[in-house]
């Protein structure tokens, strides 16, 4: 199992860095040819030009920062799951049903929560609304969403309007409304938090400087080792550049965690969980629920 | 005492890594045989192929991240303990008892809190409800739990239904209900937080890349040292690979802290504490309680 | 794409450090001339005078700290975006309109939120109010802002006065006012948080000591390597000082993230988003809004 | 002053590690004797067996983690101080006194806060109630505490019962009760947080692996250096093992910060401060208090 | 500009460490004299006695921890600024003025906020009340403050008494009082947080061990390098000990950030800002304030 995990291609950075590593390896090969033709290309002292400690620390700082963004994105989605669960529960417990249509209206409100999760996912992937979203909104709402800048916010507003109506009809107390509003505020904050991660990359100065140092480090390598390794120089350089570019690539892959990569957050699965949680409330009949005390 | 701690097998990573280390050691032995038969396997310069600083930093980042998950899991369970304590106290203080059966109903509600703790533990271990859970729920509830996806959430909902009933009967004020609801929200958030840790591993790209680098490092070691160490190469390589695989293994063991390992959180003990805390409220007679002022 | 990113000048630290690096390179060249004229300037042991590990760790700590300030600044602006969104929504939902002028007054209140975002941006850049701000405030307010120390706070106070008036007129319930007040408190806290980042630099002792160590390190470099590298010493020293000064420069550029640099936060874009979000509420007619249930 | 601080024994780790260091030193001496008797014990290459970078990083991670626990414990006690201050103030301001005995009852309630602080301290040190606690509780309460598992929680419950009584008598409004309850919740959370630190050590796998690596490192040292240092090997090894064991020992000493060590939190002093803060409220006569406006 | 910053004495650690560095340098000189007189003092292998990586990591951990305390202190003061701003605003908006003296009483309450800021500053510097405080409190209050242990807390209590009076007189609603109380709680928490930083130094075991390692490192240096550097040994050792002691000194200077150092927080400036913010509310006449809508 350990070996399988170690050599799996899927999810690894192989895809992203093999070209760069290969080029570095070929450059290493070139240098060894020049050396074997007596060119003065051996300069062992160049090893110190970029202290490996400095490079190592920068790489780890890069990975670290990217991972924090990944984990913050995960926390925000986790908070969305929790908040929608709570909202669904509060809606189904608090909202009184006095007229025949009230149950349907409530179910439609719960469906808006499913729509919110899907809309948030698509919003973070810069995708337009599609089939996935249709079952949870009315046709006229779907039309509006297609021309909206910020789908999840729009849906929250609809939910807010609905609650205001029910409150005006006396189906909610002022305390219940306040408590539901504070949950909705959390939902909107989550959208904002994800947008922040999506739209604020790591400062370019940092990425550029790090890339320059890695490239310099890899291109100077062959001159250091050609004397010792001869024609193996190419392989050596390819491997070491794979190691370094690979670490940088991990950072690139996880710093925006909302995409489709195997290293991104499993947003589709998370949305399915949310929808399933809500189904429990829309499908349940009060008869089935066992009383807490019997 | 220090020595006992240092050489205890239980809780150490020995179990997890001895096979891999042994294999690396055998490979080292093989290389030393080849060397003693004059094969050209000595290549001291390979030492630099993976700078030990880079490997060291990655390993520590791995351990660090895993520990943060472990500690966050602990915090979430700590919050569950606190919140259940508070809930039990608030229920026993706030809920008025006006009819004969009210005391029993209250005790059954408190039992649901014990059930919640156990259900949360089993949920995080992907286990079905069992004997452990039976004393705290009614038979019909037990049946429902067996077909539920998310046991702890279900139990929270029952508690919520019970409170709503008592509120409708006038045994709770609106403020008390709100305060209890906010504690229940915290409980649900804790479940969500633990699920987040359980279901979101460290990004695979990271784990794969690190494993590849460690393996490469260990397999290149014998070529570096065989010239100096001769037939001790095997032992040397076995020890160093034990050191490195061991650090990685620590990360693997503590990144999902909800299992049965000695390095996991003591969930059974935590649940016992919770049950014991609740017992105090279900067993106490008002006579025994000393008045604060006498 | 990777190469373009690696060699882009815009956003890189090249601008900030090329002079210092050039000077160090020239100093290296001078040393190599002296060496070629038989001066006793070769002292390889000087390499250890400032352990590269110490320097590396200090540099990374510097970058790390600066990045945390950058990210905290981003979070505070993100919170401002979220809070203004929420405020705009709550204002448009909660505030009743009973008299003809009420709609206009509400729109002017919403405009104050746009004014707040712009005023905050200009305040953090030590800029006076200008044309950008004019469309969102009344002429007399504009005049007051020109003589105000803290524009965003002033605007919050106006908003507060307006809400107090509407509350006195009975257009808001006490709960709605409290909920809006808590959002306004968050806005003011955000202003204070950004001022904190702006006005509290990293302690000077730290910056001075780090700069001294880098300079010393770079000036001692030529004496270490001149024996091996001869006339290439200059280039070598220039590159290594570029690497080190560059890391320090990244810290300098991102520690105050409210300016106009490509490495600063995109405040203009953020303000545009805020204004656009508010427009939705000021332009919408109730007719267009699809009912949540139809 | 700097020198005094550097060589003070009290508070240093000398006590904890001198035996281990001495043993390592003696082992080093043994090796040098063997070497002087021509045994083949010199193996300089062993230096690399545990890369010092890996060991260094693990040690620092250890210290770091332990310090975070220390500081979290400090924060929790700081929060206890603040919360008790607030509670004392709110009790003395909010609680009306209508009957003759009310003042005494209030003072006894304030004394319960002092009792809470002491009980929490003793609870975290696994100590039974003693003389220290007696002045602040009634004799019958003292008896109950002697048979209680969780003293501080018990005291909070008494305080809660008292408040409930006063609330029922109309001496507190519902808002005041809610605000006091939320402070009491914070107190209970603080107890839970401290218990969490106390009862969840750093994962054993980590401690065991680190100890093994340090010991291995120290025991292999003499073989590396005996050729160069001869009979000074013993001292050399003793010093270096003192440095390494010492860092590990710091972690051990501060990871549970609730004891009596000079490196632990000054809990006795903190409790004295709390008691003194409360005295101000129990001793003050309303006459002495200057009016804010005169 | 870069050079000026690099060589400024003010704010640097030069003051604090030049003596120790000089002594180390003289010791180095002594060793080089002994060496030139043929004493056997050259021992290059001593270089490894304290691995520079271990020392480096400990130093950086030291700086890091100290900086976190510095920044937490800054955050707490930032929170004080925000909270006082909010309080001043809420007081001036919420408090009705019905009798002639009410405006004066309100102004005196606002002045107490200025007094609070100054008192907090002086409290954290262990200073008695002085002229600076006089304009903001009444003479009798000033007298009380001179005999008070905790000035800022005392002032908060006065403010609380005043609010209670106004509430009893019906000038505040219960909601407004609650909202003001929660801000006052934040103020008291801030005082407690700053006291925590002030009174809980970094554990002595840590500081002692680090100081011992640095000293040992510096005193062993001359023996390593005397063979190569001869009479330059003194300078070399002085510079390297300046670098190391300097990093430690940064930690010492910023770990208690409430003093008068150039590296401490600008508390005087922060207090001035607070006072100025409050002035705006005490000086303003309602006529000057432009209406939000005109």
From TrEMBL, chains A, B, C, D, E:
Q: InterPro entries this protein is in?
A: YneE/VCCN1/2-like
Q: Keywords for this entry?
A: Cell membrane, Ion transport, Membrane, Transmembrane, Transmembrane helix, Transport
Keyword set includes Phosphoprotein: no
Q: Which residues cross the membrane?
A: 21-39, 45-61
Database matches in Pfam families: Bestrophin_2
| Main location as per UniProt | membrane
As for membrane topology, the entry says: Multi-pass membrane protein
- Give the UniProt subcellular location, in the record's own words: Cell membrane
- Family, per the entry? Belongs to the anion channel-forming bestrophin (TC 1.A.46) family.
Q: Which PANTHER family match?
A: UPF0187 PROTEIN YNEE, VOLTAGE-DEPENDENT ANION CHANNEL-FORMING PROTEIN YNEE
Record's protein name: Bestrophin
Native organism: Spirulina subsalsa FACHB-351
Q: What lineage does the source organism belong to?
A: Bacteria, Bacillati, Cyanobacteriota, Cyanophyceae, Spirulinales
């Amino acid at each position: 199992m350990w070996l399988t995990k170690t050599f799996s291609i899927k999810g690894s950075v192989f895809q992203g860095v093999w070209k760069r590593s290969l080029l570095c390896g070929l450059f290493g090969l070139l240098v060894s040819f020049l050396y074997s033709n007596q060119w003065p290309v051996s300069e062992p002292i160049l090893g110190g030009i970029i202290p490996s400690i400095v490079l190592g620390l920068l790489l780890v700082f890069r990975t670290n920062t990217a991972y924090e963004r990944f984990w913050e994105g995960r926390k925000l989605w986790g908070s969305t799951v929790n908040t929608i669960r709570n909202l669904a529960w509060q809606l189904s417990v608090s909202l009184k049903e006095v007229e025949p249509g009230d149950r349907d209206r409530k179910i439609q409100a719960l469906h808006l929560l499913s729509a919110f999760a899907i809309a948030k996912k698509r919003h973070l992937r810069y995708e337009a609304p599609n089939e996935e979203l249709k079952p949870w909104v009315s046709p006229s709402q779907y039309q509006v969403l297609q021309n909206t800048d910020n789908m999840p916010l729009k849906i929250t507003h609809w939910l807010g309007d609905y609650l205001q109506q029910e409150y005006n009809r006396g189906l909610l107390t002022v305390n219940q409304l306040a408590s539901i509003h504070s949950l909705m505020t959390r939902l909107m904050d989550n959208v904002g938090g994800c947008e922040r991660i999506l739209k604020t990359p790591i400062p370019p100065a940092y990425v550029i400087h790090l890339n320059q140092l890695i490239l310099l480090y890899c291109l100077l390598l062959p001159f250091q080792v050609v004397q010792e390794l001869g024609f193996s120089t190419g392989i050596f350089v390819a491997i070491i550049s794979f190691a370094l570019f690979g670490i940088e690539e991990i950072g690139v892959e996880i710093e925006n965690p909302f995409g489709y990569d195997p290293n991104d957050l499993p947003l589709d699965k998370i949305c399915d969980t949310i929808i399933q949680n809500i189904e429990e409330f829309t499908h349940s009949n009060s008869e089935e629920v066992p009383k807490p005390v019997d």
